[in-house]
Write a structure and sequence with these properties.
Rossmann fold, 479 residues, 3-stranded mixed beta sheet, Helicase, Ruva Protein, domain 3, 52% helix, 11% strand, GMP Synthetase, Chain A, domain 3, alpha/beta
């Protein structure tokens, strides 16, 4: 039952709405808050209402702290906000998904129960992205702070082209698929695209981790807002998905595939990052892998020593903005670049250790200090990651057959033995499962692969020439 409002309460509500509009901007305010009404107010609790359950869920999941903070600025004693769906004629749904997992939001030590994750608008450039429910953006990850080198030039150029494209221009490559190991700059490039695209105002750019995509889809199903969720995603101009290797679940993958197809067919841009190429994403449906492979697939390889030095120099310059006395001598810089080789995050961790030592002890950074502090960051050289395609190519060349022969159904002796050797190497040199190996060898059953592996294992023990051939192949693949 709606309470009768006094004039002071209406005046307070008007001031709160003014604060809210000023903070989030006219567009976001009109989308989410224009239809919110004040139902009741006492010393500690504010009761608000909206016309639809969908609108309620979206406001609760994304603007919990913001609404509470605006009320507390007006009336400091407010510690709780209750949001309900009022009865009456329902107006059109706002076109946004609605996460529904229950969490407690806190502001100034006071709790308010809301649903789903929540975030505030971080800057005018990311307000549209945040309003659409995107994953958080790091303001440091822009094109301006990305350090270029031989290993990432192509990926950077492709990302810049996507970010600078104008509305109505033909999409040059779609999807753009970037893959690399941990800490080599994938997320940096994807967030750079998002920042630059939103800053230009040409497109609606949405950055989502695969985990966030899964969470949004499952939440929309639970709250019966799946149609709105799909409409939002398919209305995006540039959809950016990070860490695709974590996308799980048959229904979620099916929805991702439908969204991917809908966006590409409509001429919208899709950008995806993963830790492996599409062909190695075993858990994904064949249709998704095929569509991903049909775009531009770019690998960002390991950081060369020259690039590591440039990354260190860039990080040092940033550190000096806040710690003017911080300095790393050239021999120390060269030592770190030469020994900390795994990825960019380890390089940053190394510098942070030196910075902490310098600030806390007041002592200069020396080579002896670096050698002591970097000890656990100097990792043994990891073996090269072998791909099934490389195995097929090297084996085919060794035995003078084609890769197509290895994938075919031919059963002649000059093809069967090389095929078995290739399957054996795939099982021993990669982490791929037997069914995945079978699929990559022309769609064979896993029992065929198991038979090939056991066959070669049995022969190697008795056939010295074959054993030497396989050792030669292994060295070629691992060098």
């Amino acid at each position: 039952m709606t309470m009768t409002m006094t004039n002071p309460e209406h005046e307070s509500w008007s001031r709160v709405k003014g604060r809210l509009r000023a903070e989030v901007g006219d567009d976001i305010y009109s989308s989410w808050f224009a239809r919110m009404d004040l139902e009741g107010l006492d010393e500690q609790t504010v009761r608000l209402s909206v016309p639809t359950r969908f609108l309620k869920s979206w406001i609760q999941s994304h603007y919990a702290e913001r609404v509470l903070a605006c009320w507390q600025a007006e009336q400091a004693s407010v510690g709780r906000i209750e949001l309900s769906v009022r009865s009456g004629v329902l107006r059109p749904l706002a076109p946004k998904p609605a996460p529904v997992q229950s969490v407690a939001a806190h502001h100034n030590g006071q709790a308010v129960r809301f649903n789903g994750d929540h975030r505030t608008v971080s800057s005018p450039l990311s307000s549209a992205h945040d309003a659409l429910g995107g994953s958080p953006l790091d303001p440091r990850l822009t094109f301006e702070t990305f350090v270029l080198g031989r290993s990432n030039t192509l990926a950077h150029a492709a990302a810049k082209q996507v970010a600078s494209a104008r509305r109505g221009e033909a999409v040059m490559f779609n999807p753009l698929y970037i893959h690399a190991g941990v800490g080599l700059g994938k997320t940096h490039l994807l967030q750079s695209i998002t920042w630059a695209g939103n800053a230009a105002g040409e497109h609606k750019v949405l950055y989502l981790t695969a985990e966030k995509f899964m969470y949004g889809f499952v939440s929309a199903l639970r709250s019966q807002t799946a149609i709105a969720f799909k409409e939002v995603l398919r209305g995006i101009d540039v959809l950016v998905i990070d860490d695709l290797q974590f996308l799980q679940g048959k229904n979620t993958q099916a929805e991702f595939c439908h969204t991917l197809n809908a966006l590409i067919d409509a001429g919208r841009q899709v950008v995806i990052a993963s830790d492996r190429p599409p062909s190695d994403l075993e858990s994904l449906d064949d249709r998704v892998r095929s569509r991903l492979a049909g775009g531009l697939v770019v690998e960002m390889s390991t950081l060369g020593e020259e690039l590591r030095i440039e990354i260190l120099k860039a990080r040092i310059e940033v550190a000096k903005l806040h710690h003017a006395g911080f300095d790393v001598p050239a021999p120390v810089l060269a030592y770190i670049a030469r020994t900390v080789t795994h990825n960019g995050r380890d390089l940053e961790g190394a510098l942070n250790r030196l910075l902490a030592h310098s600030k806390l002890t007041g002592q200069p950074v020396t080579l002896e200090l670096a050698e002591r502090e970097m000890r656990d960051l100097i990792r043994p050289q990891e073996p090269k990651r072998v791909k099934i395609e490389d195995i097929q190519r090297v084996v085919a060349r060794q035995y003078n057959v084609s890769r197509a022969d290895l994938l075919s159904s031919r059963r002649t002796a000059n093809v069967v033995r090389p095929r078995q050797v290739a399957m054996y190497l795939a099982k021993t040199l990669t982490l791929r499962s037997l069914p995945e190996i079978g699929r990559r060898f022309g769609g064979r059953d896993h029992t065929t692969v198991l038979h090939a592996v056991r066959k070669i294992e049995g022969l190697v023990g008795n056939d010295t020439a074959l054993a030497e051939e396989i050792e030669v192949l292994k060295r070629q693949l691992q060098d």
